[in-house]
Write a structure and sequence with these properties.
Elements lengths: L14 E3 L28 H12 L3 H4 L2 H7 L2 H28 L6 H9 L1 H32 L10 H21 L1 H31 L19 H13 L15 H30 L2 H6 L3 H9 L6 H30 L9 E3 L6 H5 L1 H9 L4 H29 L12 H20 L1 H12 L1 H10 L5 H33 L6
Antiparallel strand pairs: 1-2
Helix pairs in contact: 1-8, 1-10, 1-13, 3-4, 3-9, 4-9, 4-10, 4-17, 5-6, 5-16, 6-7, 6-13, 6-15, 6-16, 6-19, 7-13, 7-15, 7-20, 8-10, 8-13, 15-20, 16-17, 16-18, 17-18
């Protein structure tokens, strides 16, 4: 039997624990005199929802190295077709999640939908690999890109020291954690600003590209579908790269309980965001090919920088800054959304209770945010992060595919379920097939990495029975489990308080709780 969340009152740390509705119960079912309920407030408006989706989808890839698609298609024309098709299919997945998010009004995204449809074991396995490896590694990777490109203008003539990159990356990660711990409103406002910066950066590339087209610079589009022929495995791999570039459309569903009027806001935010991103991605690639040939693009390590150096002159120095801001926006949006996944999993009794606690003044799931800090730091200063992500990339699409397949299951199992937003059945069917196809492709094209990832994922099964099902644990085991669960949260909290203390000193005014 799955452990039930324990009702608790205010702890010494100033937190309350949430119930399954995202609210915080009090003893006896009544609120203490003069004390209002502490909840994750509905502060995600339409504009903030759009900024979360766009801000997490658009990272460094479109600016730095969009050559994975071109390399595996063999032609300019086919690469543009793949970018368009991937955008449409990602929209199908996002629309499926819009139906799930408006029907199951709980935060948590994939985890919540898998829990609702397939039960606690698959849901626990999903959150297990997300907490221990996928999210810390993914955050560390995008943070390293932030650290590298924020320093690039200061190291034009020489190589950037790796230690400097990791130190500035550590600062960036800490700032993101502090920001998400302190205020939902400020985190959302900064995300809107960073999304504006990303769209500005894309326009800086698209507008000169359109001007090049008007001038007749179309030589790289002649015989667009001819060139080095792609082999049988090439197109599926190009498709995989394209779908990965659009990943992030699901993050708004991680914060459903904080969305204002979710029945209208979620579908509208998803449609607007995916339209903007798809059009932006395709036009950005078109702009690249007005100035850079396919061969030059494949040789470039930073396509946007190469493009801007040819057309923008000295202004090209601003491109690394925009890339760094883009990475920071992805970091911020990812931490904001995924912390709610851990919060919900804890509320369901599948993660330590401390992660379901909300700060009584800041109204943020602070423990669920800062637990990522030490785990991300460990990833940052250890091993090959890219290998870890490659090992577990199939797990993301497997669980997303399962969640969308769950929508089809719910249509037949619970036909009377309230569905304010409903998509045609072929949309989730096609998208779930696409996800399972990519999983099968990874098994065929890279069985070693996928096999290791599969083994890592399966460790969640014994962990589930050990930590969740097994009730008669010895006292020493329970104490050890509690200690191991509390150490990361307390360590991260100490680090966060230290950063807040220095911020208070620098500002010289204000109060840091």
């Amino acid at each position: 039997m799955v452990r039930k969340p324990v009702v608790s009152t205010i702890s010494s740390g100033g937190y309350l624990q949430g119930n399954v509705n995202g609210k915080l119960p009090s003893l006896g079912g009544k609120e203490p005199p003069g004390q209002e309920k502490v909840v994750l407030k509905k502060k995600i408006t339409l504009v903030r929802g759009i900024s979360i989706i766009i801000g997490t989808i658009i990272g460094a890839g479109i600016f730095i190295s969009p050559k994975g698609v071109l390399q595996n298609t063999g032609s300019v024309g086919m690469s543009l077709v793949i970018w368009t098709v991937c955008g449409v299919l990602s929209l199908f997945g996002a629309l499926s999640y819009a139906e799930l998010g408006t029907s199951i009004k709980k935060s948590g995204g994939h985890y919540t939908y898998i829990l609702e449809v397939f039960g606690p074991l698959p849901a626990f396995v999903r959150v297990w690999v997300e907490l221990l490896i996928i999210r810390p590694a993914a955050t560390a990777v995008i943070s390293l890109a932030f650290g590298r490109y924020i320093l690039e203008p200061f190291f034009i003539q020489c190589e950037i020291p790796e230690l400097a990159i990791k130190l500035i990356t550590a600062v960036g990660i800490t700032v993101v954690m502090v920001l998400n711990s302190m205020s939902v409103s400020w985190s959302a406002r900064i995300q809107i600003f960073l999304t504006f910066c990303k769209l500005t950066a894309i326009l800086i590339i698209i507008v000169p590209g359109v001007m090049q087209l008007i001038k007749g610079q179309t030589q790289h589009f002649k015989d667009a579908f001819s060139g080095r022929g792609a082999n049988i495995m090439g197109l599926p791999l190009a498709f995989y790269y394209g779908m990965y570039a659009y990943a992030g459309w699901f993050y708004l569903n991680f914060v459903t309980e904080e969305v204002e009027n979710p029945e209208k806001t979620i579908p509208l935010a998803i449609c607007i965001s995916m339209a903007i991103v798809t059009i932006g991605y395709v036009l950005t690639n078109v702009a690249y090919f007005t100035t850079i040939s396919a061969e030059e693009l494949l040789l470039s390590n930073a396509v946007a920088v190469t493009f801007s150096e040819r057309l923008l002159g000295n202004f090209s120095l601003a491109v690394p800054i925009f890339v760094a801001l883009s990475c920071f926006g992805s970091m911020n949006g990812g931490v904001f959304a995924v912390s709610r996944l851990f919060y919900v999993a804890s509320r369901e009794g599948q993660l330590p209770e401390i992660l379901s606690m909300i700060h009584v003044r800041k109204h943020t799931p602070l423990p669920a945010v800062i637990v990522l800090h030490p785990l991300t730091m460990i990833m940052l200063f250890s091993g090959d992060l890219y290998s870890l992500l490659n090992f577990l990339s199939f797990a993301r699409w497997l669980f997303i595919g399962l969640a969308v397949a769950g929508l089809i299951y719910l249509r037949y199992k619970r036909p009377d379920m309230h569905r304010p937003f409903k998509v045609p059945l072929f949309i989730p069917a096609l998208f779930s097939f696409t996800c399972l196809f990519m999983v099968a492709l990874s098994l065929y094209s890279d069985p070693f990495s996928t096999g290791i990832g599969f083994i890592i994922t399966l460790t969640g099964v014994p962990a589930y029975y050990l930590f969740i099902i097994w009730d008669k644990k010895p006292k020493w085991f329970r104490r050890l489990s509690e200690f191991l669960c509390l150490v990361p949260s307390h360590a991260a909290r100490i680090q966060t308080q230290a950063v807040l203390y220095f911020i208070k000193i620098i500002l010289g005014t204000g109060r840091v709780d």
